[in-house]
């Protein structure tokens, strides 16, 4: 991999969702860091891969959006457990150097209905 354009983001997400540590590790540059601001955590790539791969359960997902801006690659991915009882959206910001992930910042959110107070105001409508 020589440039951002050569980073196969679909293959990265396939490895992450399959919880495959060896496959995931190949995508990270030496010294890469991962931030999860929602829970105030900073990981080395190895710690992040371990957290991902030891998370209980089996996961699936689909990339809903990708955007590229220089060395920054942004993805929005819907992640759900295999029986589809839990669903999340993750927005990930990848800083790519020489075709590998040098830094990653992710924001996870639970999917679900709007809060009751907003439903009572009858604002908005379903996206799909």
Give the secondary structure arrangement, pairings included.
Elements lengths: L8 H9 L3 H5 L2 E9 L4 E4 H9 L5 E11 L2 E10 L5 E11 L2 E11 L5 H5 L8
Parallel strand pairs: 1-6
Antiparallel strand pairs: 1-2, 3-4, 4-5, 5-6
H and E order: HHEEHEEEEH
Low-pLDDT runs: none
Q: What number is the mean pLDDT?
A: 93
Task: Report the principal-axis shape.
Answer: globular
Helix content: 10-25%
| Strand tally | 6
Going across the biggest sheet, name each strand in turn: 2-1-6-5-4-3
CA radius of gyration: 16 Å
What is the count of helical runs? 4
| Strand content bin | 35-45%
Structural category is alpha+beta
State the end-to-end CA separation.
Answer: 37 Å
What's the story with the biggest beta sheet?
A: 6 strands, mixed
Domain SnoaL-like: 10-103
Pfam family, one: SnoaL_2
InterPro entries: NTF2-like_dom_sf, SnoaL-like
Protein name: Nuclear transport factor 2 family protein
Protein described:
The chain is of the alpha+beta class and 128 residues long. Helix content is 22%, strand content 44%. It has a six-stranded mixed β-sheet with strand order 2-1-6-5-4-3. Strand 5 and strand 6 form a beta hairpin. The chain is globular. The relative contact order is 0.20. This is Nuclear transport factor 2 family protein. Pfam families: SnoaL_2.
């Amino acid at each position: 991999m020589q440039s951002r354009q050569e980073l196969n983001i679909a293959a990265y997400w396939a490895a992450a969702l399959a919880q495959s540590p060896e496959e995931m590790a190949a995508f990270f540059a030496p010294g890469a860091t991962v931030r999860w601001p929602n829970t105030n955590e900073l990981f080395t790539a190895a710690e992040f891969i371990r957290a991902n791969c030891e998370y209980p359960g089996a996961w699936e997902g689909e990339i809903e959006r990708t955007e590229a801006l220089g060395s920054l690659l942004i993805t929005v991915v819907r992640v759900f457990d295999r029986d589809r009882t839990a669903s999340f959206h993750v927005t990930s910001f990848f800083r790519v150097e020489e075709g590998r992930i040098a830094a990653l910042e992710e924001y996870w959110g639970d999917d679900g209905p709007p809060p009751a107070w907003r439903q009572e105001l009858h604002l908005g409508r379903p996206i799909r």
